[in-house]
């Protein structure tokens, strides 16, 4: 493993060939810099220009998104069976009104903060947990 960390053996022919090479002049560096700047100018100007707004992105995708959305809704309407047993959203309405009634009752009573928090989090009786478990 010591051979890995040691200096490599010198090659005199390679050294002579490298010494004989012409060293680049400062003029060569200036030419290279000029070519790099000329090639990078369009890309840099594109980066400096303001980005597109979100409505331009939406406008570009609109010809594809609208027909695709309509086809997906039509397919979903035809493929998914109509479930006649679905109840209207009255269950949600009763749950919401029950929560609203609970909050109104909690805030209407003259009580300390601990009792108020207990009313908001759960009713005073322990039956609500049993009722929720049975309802599930």
Helical amount among residues, as a percent range? over 70%
Question: Strand percentage, roughly?
Answer: under 5%
Rg is 39 Å
- Total helical segments: 7
* Helix/sheet category: mainly alpha
Extract low-pLDDT stretches: none
- Total beta-strand segments: 0
The N- to C-terminal Cα distance equals 70 Å
Mean pLDDT: 75
What is the chain-wise order of helices and strands? Answer: HHHHHHH
How would you sum up the major sheet?
none
Query: What is the overall shape?
Result: elongated
Topology:
Layout: H1 2-5, H2 12-20, H3 26-48, H4 54-79, H5 90-108, H6 113-121, H7 127-135
Helix pairs in contact: 5-6
Question: What does the model show?
Answer:
By secondary structure, the chain is an all-alpha fold. The chain has a domain at 93-135. Helix content is 73%, strand content 0%. Helix 5 packs antiparallel against helix 6 (113-121). The longest helix is centred in the middle third of the chain and has 26 residues, at 54-79. The chain is elongated and about 95 Å long. The chain starts with a helix and ends with a helix.
